[in-house]
From TrEMBL:
Organism: Taibaiella soli
SUPFAM superfamilies attached to this UniProt entry: Arginase/deacetylase (SSF52768)
GO BP field: L-histidine metabolic process; putrescine biosynthetic process from arginine, via agmatine
Tree of life domain: Bacteria
Molecular function via GO: agmatinase activity; metal ion binding
InterPro entries linked to this entry: Ureohydrolase, Ureohydrolase_dom_sf
Protein family according to the UniProt entry: Belongs to the arginase family.
Record's protein name: Arginase
Coiled coil region boundaries: none
UniProtKB keywords: Histidine metabolism, Hydrolase, Manganese, Metal-binding
Keyword Transcription found: no
Length: 331
């Protein structure tokens, strides 16, 4: 079984590198009461609620390379250690905690794909009620870590909290709109759309090599779906990157929108589908910075890893996530 672990001062103190004459973000970040975290969120004056979803079961259920569970702790440490300033004040963020999936991760080592997809359904059921409570309290969840399967829980929780379907925009090499063949990291948006939680969905920068003709055909026929190709932006130069972003954001601006950034679209960032040819880290930051103007209902940064199950490792993923998160919350 999985569970939500509420962050405490004792748990985060070891992650903060304190320095005389400086104040780190983690020294000002708000924490919830372990006994009544829901009330803490409602009573807090923080605008954002940070939560970790460290799992890679959804990735493996999509036949990918595991390791997405390793991104959260590195990201948390990096976030806690940025400088606290008037424009980037930790008091504007409540660190709720993170999900503990240790038992499921252990059990998943011995499971086939069909069983992994059942576990993903269980993760959905654990995550979405937490997101629902955060959004119902008038806060904006920032979810980090895990596979892109968790977009479904974020959309479901947000939709139920608001009593209406929501929109989403996704900067990604993949549509993650594969068929409903069992839950995994490649079909969260499909399930959310089918179940009425997602209305309009914009995909920015899809890679032509990694999106099937069948899925693209469906996207082209639906007035609720919009996409742009990486190749049309950067190879054919049919539109600029800025134009593609504006087009995507304008498509979803009629309702609260989930802001999705799959780290596997950024060049050489460690993930299950790491790409040697993608957008730059600066372009990813520009996307996040622009998103603040379009009524975000949540921010989701999935798929990043510091260590993949095949042994590949990178130490900079957590710091990159910290840049993206702070771009989103900076005044």
């Amino acid at each position: 079984m999985g569970k939500l672990v509420i962050a405490t001062q004792e748990k985060i103190d070891d992650l903060i590198s304190k320095r005389a004459g400086e104040t780190k973000f983690g020294e000002r970040i708000q924490l919830a009461n372990v006994q009544n975290w829901e009330e803490s969120i409602r009573d807090s004056n923080a605008k954002y609620v940070l939560v970790g979803i460290p799992e890679d079961i959804g990735v493996r259920a999509n036949l990918g390379v595991g390791g997405a569970h390793t991104g959260w702790e590195a990201a948390l440490k990096a976030i806690l250690n940025v400088q606290n300033t008037n424009e980037l004040n930790g008091e504007n963020v409540l660190l709720l905690g993170w999900f503990d999936f240790a038992n499921w991760l252990s059990a998943a080592e011995r499971m086939d794909v069909a069983k992994l997809r059942v576990i993903v359904e269980n993760i959905d059921e654990l995550v979405y009620p937490v997101i629902q409570k955060i959004v119902a309290a008038g806060k904006i969840p920032i979810a980090i870590g895990g596979g892109h399967n968790n977009a479904y829980a974020l959309l479901k929780g947000s939709s139920l909290a608001l009593g209406q379907s929501v929109n989403a925009i996704n900067l990604d090499a993949h549509s993650d709109y594969r068929v409903q063949e069992g839950r995994h990291s490649g079909n969260g948006f499909r399930y959310a759309k089918a179940e009425g939680y997602l209305e309009k969905y914009a995909m920015v920068g899809l890679h032509q090599n990694y999106n099937s003709e069948a899925v693209l055909g469906e996207i082209k026929q639906s007035p609720d779906l919009h996409y742009s190709f990486y190749e049309d932006i950067f190879l054919r130069e049919q539109q600029t990157y800025t134009e593609a972003l504006i087009e995507g954001f304008e498509f979803v601006k009629g309702k609260p929108a989930g802001i999705e950034l799959d780290l596997d679209c950024i060049e050489n960032v460690l993930s299950s589908a790491i790409t040697p040819c993608g957008i730059s880290t600066l372009q990813a930051r520009q996307y996040i910075f622009r998103s603040k103007n379009y009524n975000p209902v949540y921010l989701h940064i999935p798929e990043g890893a510091t260590l993949l199950r095949d042994g590949r490792s990178v130490s900079s993923t957590g710091k990159l996530i910290a840049y993206l998160v702070t771009d989103f919350i900076r005044l």
